[in-house]
């Protein structure tokens, strides 16, 4: 509780940011799965009705998407209709913030023991690739290079979708600047 | 400030060197264990490797209560349940696993059942399910490669469902690993070579993949130095116990390194090849290592270049311009593989194995992409990349 009194605004902002970013990513996952063949091919290997969750331990914000078949995702907000099949859990909100503000790559976060996988590891590998692909869509090239291991050479998405997502990113960047200070 | 962060954990007591086995009774007594059960396989027993273990205990007045010597190469949930049954029936209070990867994994899984209770090992599958320390558990490795004596992982096949169940928990780590050169003295040449190359790969991948950290780096480089120094010497002098001990210690050090910093694409391809073509793990490691390093080269130039010092020694390192060291490290590994091929025909290409057909490559690539190890490879691997590496490794 002591920490709360010291920097209440920063913690509040970070929490809101992570929550917002989960929503952005959830919607973006659904949108990308409707147009991008690469994401669809990755997702097709998941069982129909497969539920994927990303959450902050112990009971923080979460993001839930369902694979509805044919490589399509549906965003479920933070409510799972049944127990999830795969859960990627950040050990602390600070670690979620590092990843969701693109200061640490998803794969690096795994390597750095920032998060845990509960479920089939091969599905986790697949979802990490989907997230990498997603990050490279949402982010301008410069930031994406930091967020994903490699920036793909073949991104063909409707400009509209990209710009919509980038609006969120702007909000996000402001958050980072505020919180980082 | 960088975002670099790491964790390092290895609570296993390492008991290594001449007459190490004779420390087992003292270690058991120290944990109030009086009725140990040995878990091993037929090969170990036939090679006469149990005698020194049993003799060491009996001389100290410690009777081995039970011996299970029928662990198959790919251990199953049924085997684990059977052994746990015998353990309970004989009122054992501790486990000594003597063998390679399979016997050690079986020992870990049996320890879960006899400590937590029940007959259904599948219930404990996954990460972090165990919340309490288990029974006293000791490991005596009889191969120098897997490093299983210092990893917190076990894999057991569920035959009924046809799946491999992974178990991970720090509680699976043994209380002590006993490294005695007598245990690896009789390893046949091709197994010596393949398992040493597995250890070499653990160390090399630990040092060049994404989760590398200063502590695992120290173990990885020491392991590479020992293997480079001793492997060919042991191939030519199989009864040299100092050389054997070097390889066994290197394997343990490489195990400590990779269990704290993970492995990469060599293991992803190797796991897939093992599953599809039934080739031994160490052989696959030796086969893929240089091709994967070439694929990763531009991302790992610095660390790979550093390894030249441990692979070839200070003279070669100093004589090689900094910009050529990474390539020279790959050449050193290729040279070692050629020397092993000359001595025991350890295959260097998929074609040389005689057990892989070209039309299996796509399947291997697809399966490798689902392997957990691929997550820590420094370069993001696409299906086309994996196919390209396999084509290079073909012939
Ligand atoms: Fe290995």
TrEMBL record, chain A:
Protein name: SCP2 domain-containing protein
TrEMBL record, chain B:
Protein species of origin: Marinobacter maroccanus
Gene3D superfamilies for the chain: 3.40.50.1970, Dehydroquinate synthase-like - alpha domain (1.20.1090.10)
Keyword entries, A-Z: NAD, Oxidoreductase
Name assigned to this protein: Alcohol dehydrogenase
Domain Alcohol dehydrogenase iron-type/glycerol dehydrogenase GldA: 11-181
Domain Fe-containing alcohol dehydrogenase-like C-terminal: 192-394
Cofactor(s) this protein cannot do without: Fe cation
Molecular function via GO: alcohol dehydrogenase (NAD+) activity; metal ion binding
Organism lineage: Bacteria, Pseudomonadati, Pseudomonadota, Gammaproteobacteria, Pseudomonadales
Domain of life the protein comes from: Bacteria
Similarity remark: Belongs to the iron-containing alcohol dehydrogenase family.
């Amino acid at each position: 509780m002591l920490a709360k009194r010291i920097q209440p605004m920063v913690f509040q902002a970070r929490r809101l940011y992570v929550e917002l970013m989960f929503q952005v990513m959830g919607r973006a996952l659904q949108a990308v799965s409707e147009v991008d063949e690469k994401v669809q091919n990755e997702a097709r290997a998941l069982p129909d009705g497969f539920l994927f969750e990303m959450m902050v331990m112990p009971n923080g914000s979460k993001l839930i998407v369902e694979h509805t078949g044919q490589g399509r995702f549906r965003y479920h907000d933070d409510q799972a209709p049944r127990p999830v099949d795969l859960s990627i859990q950040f050990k602390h909100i600070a670690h979620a913030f590092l990843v969701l503000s693109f200061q640490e790559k998803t794969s690096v976060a795994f390597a750095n023991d920032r998060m845990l996988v509960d479920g089939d590891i091969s599905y986790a590998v697949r979802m990490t690739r989907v997230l990498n692909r997603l990050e490279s869509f949402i982010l301008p090239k410069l930031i994406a290079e930091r967020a994903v291991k490699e920036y793909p050479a073949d991104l063909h998405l409707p400009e509209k979708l990209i710009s919509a997502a980038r609006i969120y990113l702007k909000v996000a960047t402001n958050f980072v600047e505020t919180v980082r200070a | 400030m960088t975002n670099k962060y790491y964790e390092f954990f290895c609570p296993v007591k390492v008991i290594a060197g001449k007459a190490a086995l004779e420390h087992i009774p003292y270690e058991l007594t120290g944990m109030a264990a009086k009725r140990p059960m040995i878990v091993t396989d037929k090969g170990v027993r036939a090679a006469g490797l149990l005698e020194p273990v049993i003799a060491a205990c009996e001389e100290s007045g410690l009777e081995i209560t039970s011996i299970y010597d029928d662990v198959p190469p790919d251990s199953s949930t049924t085997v684990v349940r059977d052994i746990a049954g015998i353990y309970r029936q004989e009122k054992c209070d501790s486990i000594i696993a003597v063998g390679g990867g399979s016997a050690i994994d079986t020992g870990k899984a049996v320890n879960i059942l006899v400590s937590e209770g029940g007959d259904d090992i599948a219930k404990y599958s996954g990460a972090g399910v165990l919340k309490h320390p288990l029974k006293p558990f000791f490991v005596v490795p009889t191969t120098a490669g897997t490093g299983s004596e210092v990893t917190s992982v076990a894999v057991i096949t569920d035959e009924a469902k046809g799946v491999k169940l992974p178990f991970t928990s720090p509680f699976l780590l043994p209380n002590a690993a006993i490294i005695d050169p007598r245990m690896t003295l009789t390893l046949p040449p091709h197994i010596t070579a393949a398992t040493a190359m597995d250890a070499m790969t653990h160390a090399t991948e630990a040092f060049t993949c994404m989760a590398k950290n200063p502590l695992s780096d120290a173990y990885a480089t020491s392991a590479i130095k020992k293997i480079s120094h001793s492997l060919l010497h042991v191939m030519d002098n199989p009864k040299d116990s100092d050389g054997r001990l070097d390889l066994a210690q290197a394997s343990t050090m490489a195990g400590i390194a990779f269990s704290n910093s993970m492995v990469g694409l060599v293991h992803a391809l190797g796991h897939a090849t093992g599953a599809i073509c039934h080739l031994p793990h160490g052989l696959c490691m030796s086969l893929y290592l240089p091709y994967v390093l070439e694929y990763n080269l531009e991302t790992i130039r610095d660390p790979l270049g550093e390894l030249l010092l441990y692979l070839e020694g200070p003279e070669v390192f100093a004589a090689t311009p900094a910009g050529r060291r990474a390539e020279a490290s790959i050449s050193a590994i290729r040279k070692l593989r050629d020397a092993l091929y000359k001595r025991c025909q350890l295959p260097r290409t998929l074609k040389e194995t005689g057990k892989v057909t070209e039309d299996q490559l796509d399947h291997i690539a697809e399966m490798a992409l689902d392997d957990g190890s691929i997550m820590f490879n420094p370069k993001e691997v696409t299906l086309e990349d994996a196919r390209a590496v396999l084509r290079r490794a073909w012939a």
